[in-house]
Amino acid sequence: MRITFDSPVILSFSFLCAGIYLLSSISPLLGDAFVLYPVWDFDDPLWYFRLFSHAMGHANKGHLMANLPMLLLLGPIVEARYGGRQLILMMLTTAIVTSILHLLFFDHGLLGASGIVFMLILLVSARNLKEKELPLSFILVVIVFIGYEIMTSFNDDGVSHFAHIIGGAVGTIFAYLLSRKKSV
Q: Domain limits of the chain?
């Protein structure tokens, strides 16, 4: 039996997240590049990098360990279904849309892969989405995951529930667009 690199995008992203966390715990200055700060700084090239790099940074071990299992569980399913290039595009889009909306509405930093995780949750649950059909399982996933995030968004717990909701919304949009593309 041999070990295979079965999901190159998700495995690479997961290794990057873990590596960045380890390196930033040694050198906090490095971790600074993986936090989106609540400023619009069009003159700073690092600001543009942070629009998507924040998804690879994590505040602590618990934060990283909450995201990694979900990435590794759901990511390979999405990557096998849509391909690596499409998944990279979806991940970048989710990170950037989350960043821009976060900057518009909040005055605190943002980091972590949670938005991407929620995008994956919705994409996996929408795998049987077809034109003119809406699977009940998809509806229930939306209600449970997004409903929970809306209810807990008023807690002062340091978690960006907004990023979760946006990631889920972006995943839903991708699921709809990709299901239409497949049915044509």
A: 8-183
Rounded Cα gap, residues 91 and 85, in angstroms: 10
Architecture in CATH of 8-183: Up-down Bundle (1.20)
| pLDDT the model gives residue 50 | 96
Q: What letter represents residue 128's amino acid? A: N
DSSP state of 131: T
Q: How far is CA 116 from the centre of its chain?
A: 1
Report d(CA 23, CA 31) in Å as an integer: 7
> How confident is the model at residue 97, as a pLDDT?
96
What is d(CA 83, CA 7) in angstroms, rounded to the nearest whole number?
9
Distance of CA 78 to the CA centre of its chain: 13
The Cβ of residue 3 has, within 10 Å, a number of other Cβ atoms equal to 5
Question: Do residues 142 and 94 make contact, with C-beta atoms less than 8 angstroms apart?
Answer: no
Q: Can you give the pLDDT at residue 51?
A: 96
Q: What is the pTM of this model?
A: 0.89
Q: Which tokens in the block code for residue 75?
A: 């990511």
Q: What is the pLDDT of residues 96-143, one digit of tens each?
A: 999 999 999 988 899 999 999 999 998 998 877 666 677 888 888 888
